[in-house]
UniProtKB/TrEMBL annotation:
<dbReference type="InterPro" id="IPR052711">
    <property type="entry name" value="Zinc_ADH-like"/>
</dbReference>
<dbReference type="InterPro" id="IPR036291">
    <property type="entry name" value="NAD(P)-bd_dom_sf"/>
</dbReference>
<dbReference type="InterPro" id="IPR013149">
    <property type="entry name" value="ADH-like_C"/>
</dbReference>
<dbReference type="InterPro" id="IPR013154">
    <property type="entry name" value="ADH-like_N"/>
</dbReference>
<dbReference type="InterPro" id="IPR020843">
    <property type="entry name" value="ER"/>
</dbReference>
<feature type="domain" description="Enoyl reductase (ER)">
    <location>
        <begin position="13"/>
        <end position="320"/>
    </location>
</feature>
<dbReference type="Pfam" id="PF00107">
    <property type="entry name" value="ADH_zinc_N"/>
</dbReference>
<dbReference type="GO" id="GO:0016491">
    <property type="term" value="F:oxidoreductase activity"/>
</dbReference>
<dbReference type="InterPro" id="IPR011032">
    <property type="entry name" value="GroES-like_sf"/>
</dbReference>
<protein>
    <submittedName>
        <fullName>Zn-dependent oxidoreductase</fullName>
    </submittedName>
</protein>
<dbReference type="Pfam" id="PF08240">
    <property type="entry name" value="ADH_N"/>
</dbReference>
Amino acid sequence: MLAAYVEQFNPDNPIAALQLGERPDPVIDSDDWTVIEVRATSINHHDVFTARGGVIPEESLPRILGMDAAGVDTDGREVLVHNLVNSTGWVGPPLLDPGLTGLSEGYDGTFAEQVLVPRANLVLKPSSLTFEEAACLPTAWLTAYRMLFVSADLRPGDRVLVQGAAGGVTTALTSLGSAAGFRMWVTGRDEAKRAHAKVHGAEATFESGARLPERVDAVMETVGAPTWQHSLKSLRKGGTLVVAGGTGGYRAETDLSRVFVNNLRIIGSTMGTREDLDRLVHFITASGIRPTIQEVLPLAAAKEAMTLMNQGGLRGKVVLKP
């Protein structure tokens, strides 16, 4: 089958690390697993980091990249794939499993014509969603859903600051939060990105690092070091800072006195559960919101998709179609 994969990491040029060619078809060796015919898959920063060598060990190579997929299972059902895989026998909270891994990490990913997945990871795709839209949900939109509705514990009417205006997760945060009745404030480095956030439901937008007219109930942080201080200073007393990434860098100084004097909560939030994904699908179906897709490309153009992600400046998701 045709697939986009990595045989050797390239820290300086992740696009050069990506190979396109034939890989063995997946083989079902357990009743608990099945093969999905991939109709659409979307690219994430995780794929770039993996190609650089920052996610999996070298002994895992070669590895097919890709975390998101929508397609058709062996029973002919249209499905989304939840990409996190628990270790055998784990019975605790899914995201706390020490052996938790995922597609493109412990197993081959979704940048292929077929992908092998646990049956328990499937979520039915509603007919109102296209395969392209559905393929945007399992990573970026699921991450945003859990940040807002599980990790932050927000209520309609709360003020929420999103750091960054136009990426996959930040667009999802703005769209989902607005649909849920939150007052979404968004920062962006340029006017075009701030305008993008307005279109997707932002109540107000600000330049990166700008002083806000009021402090907020929660901050959604995926940028990391460049915005960390601003995030802490923007919170009201008792506010919550939810961290789900660090695309701009992972190391930032923290004024601990600000944290304990103001009773701030800093919460890490990674992806979401299969049940979160199912709820997300129901929410966007009921609300009518949809993922923003900037480009739809054939799988054969995986290097072009990786280049778009690596360059930044996206206004939504990039989708690949095998």
